[in-house]
Amino acid sequence: MTAALALGCYAAAVGVVAPKALVRSAWPYRAPAVAVAVWQGLVLSFTIALALTTYHLVTPTWHLHNGMSGLLRFCGLTFDAPIPGTGPLGVPAVAVPASVALLPLARFGHELLRARRVRARHRGVLDMVGRHSARLRATVLDHDTPAAYCLPGRRPRIVVSAGALRLLSPAQLESVLEHERAHIAGRHHLALAATEAFARVFRWLPLAREARAQTALLLEMAADDRALRRHPRQALASALYTMAAGHAPGGGTGHAHGGALTASGPGAVVRLRRMLDARRRPHPALCGVVVTVAAGLPLLPPLLGCAPGMG
Amino acid sequence: MRRLGELEAEIMDRLWAWQRPTTVREIVDDINEHRPVAYTTVMTVASILYNKGWLLRAKEGRAWVYSPVRSREEYTAALMEDALGTSEDRSAALTHFVEQMGPEEVSALRKALRAAGRRTRA
Question: Which of A152, A250, A262 is facing B100, going by the closest CB pair?
């Protein structure tokens, strides 16, 4: 029971305490890509911890001395090794934790397929009604509302509306397109699909809610950073403002888009301040350490689970 | 495959521009002013478009006449709705540059931009 208790406490810490601490800290916005890795690490670590907790709960105490080999078998490491004590209890001992681990994974696959279907449908219509611009390397949609977006995936598209072309200067437009290219090159849709899937499986969990919202915002920041490598701050920042004002009812072009505009989170304001604030990024060595920690997070639960079994 | 998509777009372009029921013959003649294309090819692609739900068709004499199901503007508006997240199925499939915003947020943005402008000038 010690192992189950330790793992349960760990899962609670990762699921509830860690996200609150991470949201409050300031460094993620200075190194958004690193922070995305940390969120993904927490998500994976929580899933493994929960799976192992259930494993230790369904395995009776006298099986604990088999903890290590059972665990290895569960991980598929010693597939042909003889497993001591595999009686009728062996089936739930593997099936229950396996289903806990496989549920988010299946949901991830489902999200990927769903998103791909939505994109394929969108792209089909887009290729028919849009006009491809070789100069911009983008598809232009003849619509007054200023907009720029991308369809990631295997046949990616970058889309700008005629309204955006009219409002933005060439320098602003180039920085916006670079931002969208960064989403595609960085395969940001995979990270989004992962947190989306996790949030749908564990809707009540603070980690799930925060990971989804923060990952979306952090990926925008990562794309901003990539655009800023080649383009001046002022261009991207003023483009963000111009596009946002153009969306708003009564602002900019005065074009209200179906009257269905609703206020969003403070994402754009945070991004704008961040773009203009020339604060230095954390040292690369520090980023390396944090990424290593993020990669190590999923290994913690197995260690926690094994420690009592080995003693 | 790419060729087929291009011809599909060429046919739709003409039907959207002309805004009247059109025979395959008229489309073929118009395309032939730029490049040669076989009547049967256009006929096949037109019926593909009909089957995909892009075109309506009706018998007029011995020939079919085709017309778009929806206008180009309607399709464009639907795409924008998809992309800007005003439609119900909001998905992470499309990531767009900036979220929808209310007037308060826009004015907060303007203030941040102005403050930064003052800082750089000072």
Answer: A262
